[in-house]
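tokens incoming
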């Protein structure tokens, strides 16, 4: 039986958590947790999020979910506030030996990453937090920098930093729980199934089939929560919406093949990642996907995007 890990993005919905510099803790928590989940996909384990979107969830419900799944590990992700700076980890008071060991592995891994960015280690702490008290399995809570500290926020709004932080947390979990790597870490069929399950796409695709602009526009619009007025699928309207919102600048035919340089550019615009202020540079756009760990190997700008790759990159992002 693979181990079950529950990842808990703190706060959500009506509860924004800490706030500072126009940021809400709940959003950063969710972003980091989704990245942790996608980083853990290459290991043999089952990962569940307590919330997948901006919904309200009580502390009791979070613990109850983990208990009902008989999870092997629970990790809650938070951002600190109150005038400090740096990183700290928490376990419940008088923790079990296994909990201490798990926390230690994760704490060391994260601090090794953060020290490269000059972030202070505030130490290994304990507290009576409800999610730590109510969960029956080893549970750890991380306070990742301070949302009301200018220098910390500078890092928290940097995509490559967030990607690296999430990677270090996932690596810490994998080391703590000795998670074996999957034999074939990349499973494009599974990636496509996730899009189907979450109704981002409605029609099954084969991993090796080429993505077209009509499908791409529809998928990107669903991801950003925008839909055209027509009740029936109208790929031209979907493309028009991308043009209107400057996600793309050149009109496309629904049947046009999607190429890597264009896809990287559209996705970077959609996620608000400004790559260059100069003329269009598709190589730089692809490099931004690599830097943010949405993509792990370089692509030719004019290579067609296949559905398996397309689904994988979108799942890492969303
Ligand atoms: Zn919090």
């Amino acid at each position: 039986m693979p181990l079950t890990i529950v990842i808990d993005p703190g706060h959500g919905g009506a509860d924004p958590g800490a706030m500072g510099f126009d940021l809400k803790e709940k959003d950063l928590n969710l972003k980091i947790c989704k990245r942790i989940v996608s980083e853990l996909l290459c290991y043999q384990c089952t990962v569940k999020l307590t919330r997948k979107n901006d919904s309200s969830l009580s502390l009791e419900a979070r613990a109850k979910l983990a208990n009902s799944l008989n999870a092997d590990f629970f990790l809650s992700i938070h951002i600190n506030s109150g005038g400090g700076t740096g990183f700290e980890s928490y376990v419940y008071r008088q923790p079990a030996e296994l909990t201490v060991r798990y926390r230690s592995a994760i704490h060391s891994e994260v601090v090794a990453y953060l020290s490269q960015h000059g972030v202070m280690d505030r130490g290994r702490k304990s507290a009576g937090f409800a999610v730590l008290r109510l969960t029956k399995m080893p549970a750890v809570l991380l306070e990742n920098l301070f949302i009301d500290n200018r220098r910390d926020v500078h890092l928290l709004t940097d995509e490559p930093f967030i990607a690296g932080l999430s990677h270090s947390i996932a690596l810490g979990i994998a080391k703590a729980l000795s998670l074996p790597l999957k034999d074939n870490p990349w499973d494009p069929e599974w990636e496509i199934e996730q899009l189907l399950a979450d109704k981002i796409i409605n029609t099954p695709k084969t991993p090796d089939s080429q993505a077209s602009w009509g499908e791409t526009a529809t998928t990107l619009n669903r991801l950003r929560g925008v839909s055209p007025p027509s009740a029936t699928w109208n790929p031209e309207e979907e493309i028009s919406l991308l043009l209107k919102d400057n996600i793309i600048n050149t009109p496309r035919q629904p049947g046009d093949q999607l190429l890597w340089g264009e896809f990287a550019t559209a996705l970077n615009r959609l996620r608000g990642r400004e790559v260059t202020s100069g003329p269009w540079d598709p190589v730089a756009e692809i490099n931004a996907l690599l830097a943010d760990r949405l993509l792990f190997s370089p692509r030719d700008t004019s290579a067609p995007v296949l559905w398996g790759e397309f689904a994988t990159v979108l799942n890492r992002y969303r």
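note: The mean pLDDT is 94.
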